[in-house]
User: What shape does this take?
Amino acid sequence: MNLKTTVAGNQFETPFLNASGIICQTQEELDSLEATKELGGIVTKSATLQPREGNEQPRYYDLAHGSINSMGLPNQGYPFYLDYVQHEHSKPTILSVAGMSAADAIELMRKVQDSDYEGLTELNLSCPNVIGHPQTAYDFEATEKILETVCSFFTKPFGVKLPPYFDLAHFDGIAKVLNKFPLTHVNTINSVGNGLVVDVDKEQVVTKAKGGFGGLGGAMVLPTALANVRALRLRLNDDIAIIGTGGVTTGADVFAHILCGADMVSVGTQVIKEGLGVYARLQKELEDIMAEKGYESLEDFRGKVKEL
Ligand code: RRO
Assistant: This one.
C-alpha cells in the first residue's frame, strides 16, 4: 500500500506529522520524532525570536474527550530550531515560527530567508495562548499585510497555521486573502482557542494563565477540524496543500481528514495520551480501512467526500 504524499515537491513517506508543540521542543524530543518510523515528517515547536519559558503551570490538562492547553509558546528561540532543520534528517522537516507581533513574524521570516534552510516553513498565525495577543489570522487585514510583507522578500516554500473558523463568510474571507499569495500549504486547525474547563469538585478552572482560558484539542474538535479542512479545500487554489490537524484518535479520523482534502494529517492530543506508538496504530487502522475499500493510495480518496 502506498501512503506517500507530497507538499510543494517535498516527498513524505506517510501523511503523518506531529502537531506543532507536541514532543518537538527539545533536541531529545525531536530525536524521538525522527525515530518514529511511521511519521512522514517532523514539525518543530513554534519558534520565537527570543527563548520563552511559556505560561505558568498548570498549562496542560487532559480531558476525557481531548485536552486544554495554555502553554504560552515555551521554546528555545529560533536559532535552535533553524539550526535543527539545517542538519541532515531521515525525513522532511517543517520549521514552525511564531511572532509575538507582526514585526517579529516578519523578522523571523527574514532569518529563515537569510539562512541555508530550503525546506518548508510554517508561519503560525494562530497561537491562542499568549497573554495580551489576539490570534492574528482572525484579523484578515492584518494577515494580508503580514503576508504581503513576507512575500516581498521571502522566496522559499512556506505555509501558514490557521485557527479554526466557524462561519462560511469567514472561510470565504480567509481564503480570499490566502489565495493572493504563493503559499505551499495551510495547516488547519490550531486548537480551538479560549475554551474554559471547570473542575466542579474544586469549583475552579484547570489551567493557570488567562484565568483558565485555553486552547481545546483532541476528539472534541474533530468535526471543527474536518469542516475547516473541507471548507478551505473547496476555496483555496489547488496548489495550496492542506495539512489537517485536529481531533485524530483513530485511523478512521485520518481517513476522514484525507477524504475532506488533507494532504497530510497531524496528531497532537492523542500523542500525549498514548505516546509515539500512536502512529503505528493509526497507520495500521488507516491501511485496514483502505484495504477494505480497495484503495491503494491516498489519491484514490483524497478530497472525495460525498455530499447528500
Ligand atoms: O504554546 C502554546 O500555547 C500554543 C501554541 Br504556540 C499554538 O499555536 N497552539 C496551542 O494550542 N498552544
Q: What stands out?
A: The first helix runs from residue 27 to 34.
